[in-house]
Amino acid sequence: MQTRYESSPKETAGMNTTELRNNFLVETLFSTNQIHLTYSHYDRMILGGIMPTNEVLTLPTYEDLKSTYFLERREMGIINVSGDGKIMVDGQPFSINKLDCLYIGRGAKNITFESVDAENPAKYFVLSAPAHKEYPTQLMTKEAASPAQMGAVETANQRTIYKYIHLDGIKSCQLVMGLTVLQNGSVWNTMPSHTHDRRMEVYCYFDIQQGQGVLHLMGQPQETRHLWVSNHQAIISPPWSIHSGCGTTNYSFIWGMAGENQSFADMDFVSINELR
């Protein structure tokens, strides 16, 4: 498990491309029969990818957590972005297909991940945040996530938003999680942009076609920076930073947040004309 420390707006304004990528971009999420995790000091969020093929992978604990098991003081949200899979939580099986979400509450000890078909393996994107109480483990399919249509063809941001872990969905201590699917011909996400100083955010980009990419915008609204992102890569977004993107084609992305406020609408909007 890698560790990423916090960077202030002042530090970030002086970073070159390599420094920006090293601090805010997680380039490798999925490898065959591997668990890749990154511990961010922004709200103590852990993000990562789990890709079982012909093996069953068990979630370990890590020395850095100073706990006897991974979710002793944490909760976890998982969204599958590829083939069908199965997750076992303390002996209880959950079938999780593409775009389904599984929330696992604090206190779960034994968690395993597997794929139904090794030729089309599941790819689990995971987020974990500190938790102060237990909420029940719960599966939500994409059909049950109340998909909402937003945007327009004219502004190239026609999209479907799926909300899984939030105040009116799966209950959690502080984790908020969902995903957005852009329609054909649409490329912009989260524009006009916003910040929310009460919580950090993570983006995981997926379903980016081979040879295509997403230009992710970050930084303070008057001091923006950019990162080129490929398929199955993630961005760590500080509370003071915008988080918007424009693709060379349509794509999808998972968004997840942790902090002191779970309200999905808690956003400090920034006019497009104010961006620099």
From TrEMBL:
* InterPro entries linked: KduI, KduI/IolB_isomerase, KduI_N, RmlC-like_jellyroll, RmlC_Cupin_sf
Record flagged with keyword Metal-binding: yes
* Pathway info: Glycan metabolism; pectin degradation; 2-dehydro-3-deoxy-D-gluconate from pectin: step 4/5
Q: Name the SUPFAM superfamilies on file.
A: RmlC-like cupins (SSF51182)
Question: At which positions is Zn(2+) bound?
Answer: 194, 196, 201, 243
The GO terms describing molecular function are: 4-deoxy-L-threo-5-hexosulose-uronate ketol-isomerase activity
Q: Which enzyme type, at the first EC level?
A: isomerase
Cofactor: bound how, per the entry note? Binds 1 zinc ion per subunit.
Asked if Thylakoid is a keyword of the record, the answer is: no
Keywords from the named record:
Isomerase, Metal-binding, Zinc
What cofactor does this protein call for? Zn(2+)
Reaction(s) the record says it catalyses = 5-dehydro-4-deoxy-D-glucuronate = 3-deoxy-D-glycero-2,5-hexodiulosonate
E.C. no: 5.3.1.17
**A Pfam family per the record:** KduI
| HAMAP family the record matches | KduI
The record describes the protein's role as: Catalyzes the isomerization of 5-dehydro-4-deoxy-D-glucuronate to 3-deoxy-D-glycero-2,5-hexodiulosonate.
Family from the record: Belongs to the KduI family.
Q: What is this protein called?
A: 4-deoxy-L-threo-5-hexosulose-uronate ketol-isomerase
> What is the organism lineage in this UniProt record?
Bacteria, Pseudomonadati, Bacteroidota, Cytophagia, Cytophagales
Gene this protein is translated from: kduI
